[in-house]
Amino acid sequence: MSPVEPEMTPERTDAIRGLLMRTLRNEPARRIQLRRRRIAVWAGSVFLVAGVATTGAAVLLQGQHVENTAIVQCYSSQTPNAAGAYPGSSATIADGNGRGQAREALELCGAMWEQGVFATSFDPTVPNNEPGAVPDLQVCVMGDGSAAVVPGDSNVCQAVGLAPLKE
């Protein structure tokens, strides 16, 4: 059996021609509408990202108080290691009652720098290590409310993604 082809009558030809003309007339309008929609979506996305970034920056730039005084992180660098963590050491700033102050965190980490703890040549098994140089240190506040002492200028907290200490 051979397939039966529809007969091309003048009415059918006119209908096909009319459909083709409507499609050709409407196509530019569809493209324009689609382009406008894409531009609106992209512009909205840009404004959304800008708003989130502005809000995030405002939160980061806002100073905070140290809430968790049981521990302090003493960073030895502003640059994270390969695992994404910042090198350094943890220490406690709390007394027997669990109280401590951010000022003590700065003193404690400064003493660790003085003792050469963050020097590459430091050996914990040797009683007398070379003394180290103490860089400018800033107290920052970590997400859990604990203090982090970071070497650097007054903008270092934002650079490492922490909140500055609220005086």
What can you tell me about this protein's structure?
The chain folds into 2 domains: about 10-60; about 70-165, no CATH class. Helix content is about 40%, strand content about 15%. The chain is built from 3 helices and 5 strands, in the order αββαββαβ. A 5-stranded mixed β-sheet has the order 2-1-4-3-5. Strand 3 (about 135-140) and strand 4 form a beta hairpin. The longest helix has about 50 residues, at about 10-60. It is rod-shaped and about 105 Å long. The chain starts with 9 loop residues before the first helix and ends with a strand. About 20% of the residues are buried. The mean pLDDT is about 80.
Mean pLDDT across all residues, rounded?
79
Give the strand content.
5-15%
Please tally the β strands and state the result: 5
- Morphology: rod-shaped
The end-to-end span amounts to: 93 Å
Sheet/helix structural class: alpha+beta
**Helix-strand topology string:** HEEHEEHE
Instruction: Order the strands across the largest sheet as they lie in space.
Output: 2-1-4-3-5
CA-based gyration radius = 33 Å
Stretches where pLDDT is under 50 for at least 5 consecutive residues are none
**Domain module count:** 2
Describe the largest sheet: 5 strands, mixed
Q: What is the tally of helical segments?
A: 3
Compact summary:
The protein contains 3 helices and 5 strands.
What are the salient characteristics of this protein?
167 residues, alpha+beta, 2 domains, 5-stranded mixed β-sheet, 41% helix, 15% strand
List the helices and strands and how they pair.
Blueprint: H1 10-61, E1 68-75, E2 88-91, H2 102-114, E3 137-141, E4 146-151, H3 156-159, E5 163-164
